[in-house]
């Protein structure tokens, strides 16, 4: 639906939307990375005399405070930092894992191909949130475990894509010809096949990033993701749900940031996909 809407816009409107999305994401990334230096308060700084201050009513707390008197703006900046770090790390690890397995399946075939395809089908058929909750129940809610879960979440898309494109390279014959010349398989994969499929992988990464943000948000909202004293966008959203009627800003502000960031990344992903399509190049 978003892709159809994006393509229905004129070139000027689409260009403005892409630039706006890029600016928003750049601001979010920079603010998140610089949060230890630009946040007006620490992550856990409390002022019980300033509990539940409404946003835009105090210069000391522009976005208000939560139930413990903690500054919402400061917590939002720190939460952006952690959520984006988790999403970027999970996306990169998933891309590396899926691409490597896709190359192995395409190169060796046989039982290796069958095992990779079985893993792809298993991951695609199982509701992933159930699998994530099961893993967290057994291994705990450590940040490392969450990163591994986020990497597993996206690997099957990269594996399927890489396997199909790499098999096409062998079918076309140039990969087999290079092997006949004595060039090592690793060099063929990384030096010849990977550059040809890199654009498709980049598109997949940009389209998969919003899902990573939403996965982390869902797990933290359910209480099995990022744990205090750390804070993420999902953690803020989860803590604020009990105050929707009395202090709506605790949950609404991080919720709006989640919607804007995922929507902006989806727009950029559609734009990248459109730009890298062969008929548009």
TrEMBL record:
Lineage per the UniProt record: Bacteria, Pseudomonadati, Pseudomonadota, Betaproteobacteria, Burkholderiales
Pfam families: BPD_transp_1 (PF00528)
SUPFAM superfamilies: MetI-like (SSF161098)
Record domain ABC transmembrane type-1: where: 80-269
PROSITE patterns xrefs: ABC_TM1
Membrane topology: Multi-pass membrane protein
Lineage: superkingdom: Bacteria
InterPro entries: BP-dependent_transpt_permease, MetI-like, MetI-like_sf
Similarity section: Belongs to the binding-protein-dependent transport system permease family.
Family matches, as CDD domains: TM_PBP2 (cd06261)
Alphabetically ordered keywords of this record: Cell membrane, Membrane, Transmembrane, Transmembrane helix, Transport
The protein, known as: ABC transporter permease
Regions crossing the membrane: 16-39, 84-106, 126-153, 193-215, 247-272
Compartments, record wording: Cell membrane
Primary location class: membrane
């Amino acid at each position: 639906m978003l892709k159809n809407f994006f393509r229905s816009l004129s070139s000027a409107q689409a260009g403005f939307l892409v630039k706006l999305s890029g600016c928003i994401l750049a601001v979010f990334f920079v603010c998140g990375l610089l949060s230890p230096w630009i946040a007006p308060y620490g992550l856990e700084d409390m002022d019980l005399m300033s509990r539940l201050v409404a946003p835009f009513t105090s210069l000391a707390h522009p976005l208000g405070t939560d139930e413990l008197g903690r500054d919402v703006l400061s917590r939002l900046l720190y939460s952006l930092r952690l959520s984006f770090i988790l999403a970027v790390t999970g996306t990169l690890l998933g891309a590396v894992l899926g691409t490597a397995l896709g190359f192995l399946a395409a190169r060796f075939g046989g039982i290796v191909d069958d095992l990779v395809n079985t893993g792809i089908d298993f991951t695609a058929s199982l509701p992933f949130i159930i699998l994530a909750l099961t893993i967290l129940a057994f291994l705990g809610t450590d940040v490392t475990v969450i990163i591994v879960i986020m990497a597993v979440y996206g690997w099957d898309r990269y594996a399927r894509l890489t396997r199909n494109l790499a098999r096409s390279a062998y079918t076309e014959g140039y990969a087999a010809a290079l092997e006949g010349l004595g060039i090592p398989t690793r060099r063929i994969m990384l030096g010849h096949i990977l550059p040809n499929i890199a654009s498709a992988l980049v598109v997949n990464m940009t389209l998969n990033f919003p899902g990573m943000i939403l996965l982390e948000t869902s797990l933290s909202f359910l209480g099995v993701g990022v744990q205090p004293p750390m804070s993420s966008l999902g953690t803020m959203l989860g803590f604020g749900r009990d105050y929707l009627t009395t202090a709506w800003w605790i949950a609404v502000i991080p919720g709006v940031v989640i919607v804007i960031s995922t929507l902006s990344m989806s727009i950029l992903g559609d734009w990248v996909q459109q730009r890298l399509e062969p008929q548009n190049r």
